[in-house]
Amino acid sequence: MSNLHSCLQELYLEIFPVDGIDQQLLQLPDGAYLGVTCSPNQGLQVTLDLVSALKERDFHLVPHVAARQVRDRAHLTDIIQQFDDEGVESMFVPGGDIANPIGDYPDALSLLRDLAEIGHDFRHVGVAAYPEGHPDIDDRVLLETLKEKQGLATYMVTQMCFDAGAVLGWLAEVRSRGITLPVSLGLPGVMDRMKLLRTSLRIGVGQSARFLRKQGGLAGAMLRSSHYQPDELVDGLSSAIEDPDMGIDGFYLFSFNQVAATVAWQQERLRKLPVSAEAALSLIHI
Fold first, then answer.
1. What pTM value is reported for the model?
2. Do 175 and 167 form a contact (C-beta atoms < 8 A)?
3. Each residue of 161-193: pLDDT tens digit?
4. Is 264 helix (H, G, I), strand (E, B) or coil?
5. Any idea what DSSP says for residue 125?
6. Is 65 exposed, middle or buried (CB count within 10 Å of its CB: 0-12, 13-18, 19+)?
7. Are 212 and 197 in contact (CB under 8 A)?
8. Alpha-carbon distances, residue 51 vs 37, 57, 85 (angstroms)
9. 251 φ, ψ to 5°?
10. How confident is the model at residue 224 (pLDDT cuts 50, 70, 90)?
11. Residues 6 or more apart from 96 whose CB is under 8 A from it?
């Protein structure tokens, strides 16, 4: 089985914890891979509550614990205990988008340090990475911080990006600087194109959104269809996925809660790949 097939078959689907999302998830099979975001508007507790609601399903859950929404070490200890009680084996630690931290953790690195000191049984701890930079953090600082996080995490996830060249150029650069963490590539999911552009600007991937607007072919495609699918992006990344030096471990799809559309796209992409008869009969995980 190719690495591309594996990335598509076992991709992580990011969901927002909103009313009704649990019903959408009923269509997913046991073993589905789900990242549960931590909203700056709704707060961390909503994420924790959804994880609790889903604990009876046989999902691979990866809750996002935004550092700026954790009060202190005692709060962090309680979160670790909850995840341990509920069988959660992985967590993802972003800094968080709220302007002012509610407690002792201004950034992900400070929380990761306490997480290591407290101790935990997580198999995986993920951190964010930014191929196109961060609107509020200098690129040099991002690289230095990622190096420090490397000893406290097991993988990284790239922020949503539309440009395969930008992702691969950044990845080659960080590999040359000694960043060896396996990486899951963050892909924009299947959704309304204009909503996707507005969202990308809001979350800080403006360069990539401007890239989309500047490309005549893509602009024409937006006029021809109201929906975006990341096929061209996947195609642009496919050769690098097979390169072990790049350390690409999977796809992380920003679904914007378009669960049914995402499943349909994933299954169609898998059908187009040459696979063995045994693999074709296996369960599709998302």
1. 0.85
2. no
3. 888 999 999 999 999 999 999 999 999 888 776
4. helix
5. E
6. buried
7. yes
8. 10, 10, 11
9. -110, 145
10. low
11. 38, 40, 66, 67, 68, 69
* Model pLDDT, residue 162: 83
β-pairing, 248-254 vs 12-15, is parallel
Q: What is the largest CA-CA distance in the chain?
A: 54
Q: How far apart are CA 32 and CA 26, in angstroms?
A: 11
Is the CB of residue 99 less than 8 Å from the CB of residue 71?
Answer: no
Structure tokens belonging to residue 267: 């299954």
Question: What is the per-residue pLDDT for 183?
Answer: 98
Instruction: Map residue 239 onto helix, strand or coil.
Output: helix
Number of other residues whose CB lies within 10 A of the CB of residue 112: 20
- Would you give the distance in Å from CA 21 to the centre of its chain? 18
What's 167's DSSP letter?
Answer: H
pLDDT band at 135 (very low <50, low <70, confident <90, very high): confident
Who's near 104: CB < 8 A, 6+ residues apart? 70, 71, 72, 73, 110
**What is the distance between the alpha carbons of residues 284 and 286, in angstroms, rounded to a whole number?**
7
Please report, to the nearest 10 degrees, the dihedral formed by the alpha carbons of residues 271, 274, 276, 278 taken in order: -10
**What residues are paired with 185 via a beta bridge?**
251
CB–CB of 270/284 below 8 Å? yes
Tokens of 159: 């922020």
CB 62 within 8 A of CB 35: yes
- Tokens representing residue 117 in the block: 């000191």
- Cβ-based neighbour number of residue 41 at 10 Å: 7
